[in-house]
Amino acid sequence: MFQKILIANRGEIAVRIIRACKEMGIKTVAVYSEIDKNSLHVQLADESICIGPANSKQSYLNMKNILEATCLSGAEAIHPGFGFLSENPLFAHVCEESNIHFIGPHAETIELLGNKSNAKEMMRKAKVPIIPGSESDISSLEEATTLANKIGYPIMLKASNGGGGKGIRIVRTEAELPKAYETVKQEALISFNDDHIYLEKYIENPHHVEVQILADEHGNVIQLGERDCSIQRKNQKMIEESPATFLTSDLRKKMGEAAINAAKAAHYTSAGTIEFLVDEQGHFYFMEMNTRIQVEHPVTEMVTDIDIVKEQIRIAAGEKLSYTQKDVSIQGNAMECRINAENPDKDFMPSPGLITKLILPGGYGVRVDTSAYTGYEIPPTYDSMIAKIIVHGKTREEVICRMQRALSELQIEGVKTNKEFLLQILRNKNFQNGNYNTSFIKNLSE
What we know:
By secondary structure, the chain is α+β, with helices and mostly antiparallel strands. It contains 15 helices and 22 strands.
């Protein structure tokens, strides 16, 4: 087992990883940008090293500085968290070349699955259901037009190496295609330094369901059930829950088996997530595989009582999984709400600033993952998420009531948050009855 791990991230996920390491008796090294010098993850780690200015390109995306910090600290491994360099195959490769353990899958696997066109082709060969569309990247507008007419509108254009809801356009008619094609290529180049795009059939009003998997270096692969992530705003998740209310036992079994087949086809190791779209007729399709820890991983931890971050670390150290599939048992329901520093009344405009008062919820069945505290200044430089509230209960009804109670207890002053908007969703009868899909928030605002 590792003696010391460097966490190449910030915010609540860095705090989450540090806590797991402490419980495992592993020393931790925090890295931070100049604007993050007073952050909680810096205070909790055994050591901390500044890696550059506030701009993430000069700090959290600066491979050279992070690797130098790792060597300087004597850490044997790097945990990348999510975002930043977590799905960068070059970073994983450089870690491997530098004899530093990258806590995640191998570089070749990240590269393969990071390209959505290649990933879809792999899943097609593994007989995992995929959405009809291009078998590889689209090379011209003419090719896109021909294929779109073949599979029928609406279609979706997506950046091949995209993520985070960027580089995506829905196209409903042939007349809209030329402008959308150029827009997506430009967005892909700006956001991901790669203008390759692909095309697929747009599934109207689907559920977005993902299956959590764990796979070790010894050929063992298990799945930890699913999460319904359909409550989204502009492809950004806001509420996640497990289990998915609409899945039949038969469909749940098929999706779990498909997720394991997908992981095995990719020779995957570490924690990962297979994302599916499920249409109104109950057909499911592979969308992508995330080769990192997910923001919403606590939802699965609450219903399985399995620490996914600790398993990630054990796998990276070459150990076998601590669990078999028979050991995995889904107990009750869990739900997560993402608390963002943003103003819902102004189109969710980010609301950075000084937190003058913070009271976090607690009590039975409530977990809060955050790096915020009273007196902490939320920088304008990074993602607006400041906390995750996760609750667990025997039934979904109990979970919804518990989440409302937890959000009501939450007090944040000094910045605007989306707390009241989340409460509005939880009080909505359609949501309470499980009658929702990815169009829920759009329809709610209309």
